[in-house]
Amino acid sequence: MNVDEDMMVHLALNSLSKEFKSLRDTYIAQKESWTLNDLIYICVQQEHNIIRERDAKMVNLVQSKQNKEYRNKGTTAGKEKEKERIITIQML
């Protein structure tokens, strides 16, 4: 049994994970067919884009905290000190 290249491309596209949904939609929307080599090349590019997007979903948050230090020299003199804490949040 021989399977033509168009059928192989369709089978390969349908076996991709949900992260490649936009790639499947693009293929369906266009009028030209891809070869297997084209599909492999495009999938590799798409995978790099997905990885880059995952890494880009990190947010740095800077939080300032004020502490008051009091000295006991007859009067209450307050001295403010700021501490900064950097928190990295990864959004999934």
What keywords describe this structure?
single chain; alpha+beta; 3 helices; 2 strands; 45% helix; rod-shaped
Word description of this protein:
The chain is of the alpha+beta class. The chain folds into two domains: 5-56; 58-90, no CATH class. The protein is 45% helix and 33% strand. The protein is built from three helices and two strands, in the order H-H-H-E-E. The chain has a two-stranded antiparallel ribbon. The longest helix has 21 residues, at 36-56.
- Low-pLDDT regions: 76-82
Number of domains: 2
**Overall geometric form:** rod-shaped
Number of strands: 2
Beta fraction: 25-35%
CA-based gyration radius = 28 Å
Integer average pLDDT: 75
The structural class is alpha+beta
User: What can be said about the biggest beta sheet?
Assistant: 2 strands, antiparallel
Number of helices: 3
Terminal-residue CA separation: 44 Å
**Strand ordering within the main sheet:** 1-2
Helix fraction bin: 40-55%
Condensed summary:
The chain has 92 residues and is of the alpha+beta class. The protein has helices at residues 5-15, 21-29, 36-56; strands at residues 58-72, 76-90.
List the helices and strands and how they pair.
Blueprint: H1 5-15, H2 21-29, H3 36-56, E1 58-72, E2 76-90
Antiparallel strand pairs: 1-2
